[in-house]
Design brief:
The complex is a heterodimer of chains A (about 160) and B (about 190). Chain A has about 160 residues and is mainly α. Chain A folds into two domains: about 100 residues, Orthogonal Bundle (Helicase, Ruva Protein, domain 3); about 55 residues. Chain A contains six helices and no strands. Chain A is elongated and about 100 Å long. A seven-stranded mixed β-sheet of chain B has the order 2-1-5-4-3-6-7. With about 190 residues, chain B is α/β, with parallel strands linked by helices. In chain B, helix 2 crosses helix 5. Chain B contains five helices and seven strands; from the N terminus they run αβββαβαβαββα. The chains are: A mainly alpha (about 160), B alpha/beta (about 190). The interface between A and B is large, with 38 and 36 residues.
């Protein structure tokens, strides 16, 4: 019985170990060349005249110009990725960002889904608990039930 | 056995408002986020560059000399991003010719006008100006750096820069001589 009680902990431990191994084995180490870095940054910038495309994918003149600017700044070696994005944003505005910022008002985009998930899990937990209680209450025979069964059994006895 | 804990209506009444409140807060948050989102079709002339120093703008003039916006301080400067095959650019050209004439008539107080070529070939641009008129300086933005600096993705676009090198206006799409002249006058009066 005690072994049965412990098995979820073992399963959880195995799951965590496997998850860590999977993440560690497949983890992307990030860009390793200036070209890869330029491409990675370009994938975070939206094409200003297309819908849902990054400047990395788009062949539009504006996107090509922005890619050239990113490459120039990457090759300059002075600016960080965020500084390069900020440079582009300073000209085109926030609409140019494909990935919303994690600060200020934009952080709501990240926070709301997490809040929704927490609320959903809490609601499920409350609901399951209630169902279990209802089921437990329904399965327990009342005094009247027991009396009825006893009477029926007494009638059957010869 | 019959007094086992059960979910009573009063307990539900206690929990329900909290769940409703959480859902309402989430929906309100989503509404605010979606209402504040920029629609891709909602194009405006708003720019983060307004009232800020103009970005670096260096290009080559038709005569082979260098154009550097930073060296034009002291004058009101109007930059018009242009492409010879763009229909609104062609349509606004006569108005630009008239605007430049009006500004030249003002003498030293008139704004200096420059065309910035956006993704176009020199022969096409030269042919266009030869046919349609316009003898103001034409800047070739070969690497697109001026366009990126100003956040230009479509043409035509017209920018107004004050004598201190501060961006004071942006007009997207086609302009008329009267509109551009009046905008410039308002800005000059505001800053005088």
């Amino acid at each position: 019985m005690s072994a049965l009680k412990k098995w979820p902990a073992w399963v959880l431990l195995v799951f965590v170990v496997v998850a860590f191994l999977a993440v560690g084995a497949t983890r992307d180490d990030g860009p390793s060349t200036p070209q890869e870095r330029s491409d990675a940054i370009a994938q975070r910038v939206a094409c200003p005249v297309c819908d849902g495309e990054s400047v990395f994918e788009s062949r539009n003149t504006a996107s090509v110009n922005i890619r050239n600017r990113i490459t120039e700044l990457v090759n300059g070696g002075q600016a960080s990725d965020d500084e390069i994005i900020a440079d582009i944003e300073a000209s085109f505005g926030g609409r140019i960002l494909l990935v919303p910022k994690a600060t200020g008002f934009d952080a709501l985009v990240w926070a709301l889904p997490v809040a929704a998930l927490i609320c959903a899990v809490a609601a499920l937990a409350v609901t399951f608990r209630r169902w279990r209680r209802d089921a437990a209450a329904a399965s327990d025979p009342t005094v009247e039930d027991r009396a009825m069964v006893a009477a029926a059994l007494a009638d059957e006895d010869p | 056995m019959s007094d086992e804990p059960t979910v009573t209506p009063s307990r539900r009444r206690r929990v329900a408002p909290f769940i409703a409140l959480a859902v309402a807060v989430l929906l309100a948050g989503l509404f605010v986020v979606l209402a504040g989102a920029d629609a891709s079709t909602d194009e405006t002339a708003e720019t983060p560059l307004l009232d800020r120093p103009a970005p670096e703008a260096v290009g080559e003039l038709a005569d082979g000399t260098t154009f550097d916006l930073a060296r034009r301080k002291g004058d009101w400067v109007v930059l018009n991003f242009f492409q010879s095959s763009c229909v609104p650019c062609q349509q606004e050209h006569p108005d630009l010719v008239r605007f430049v004439e009006q500004q030249r008539a003002l003498g030293p107080d008139g704004a200096k006008f420059y065309t910035v070529v956006y993704d176009d070939e020199r022969p096409a641009v030269e042919e266009f100006f030869a046919e349609e008129g316009g003898d103001w300086p034409v800047v070739y933005d070969e690497d697109g750096s001026i366009a990126v600096g100003f956040g230009v993705a479509k043409v035509p676009e017209t920018w107004i820069i004050d004598p201190n090198g501060i961006v004071r206006g942006r007009v997207i799409s086609r302009v008329t001589a009267d509109f551009l002249g009046s905008q410039l006058q308002v800005l000059q009066e505001q800053l005088s």
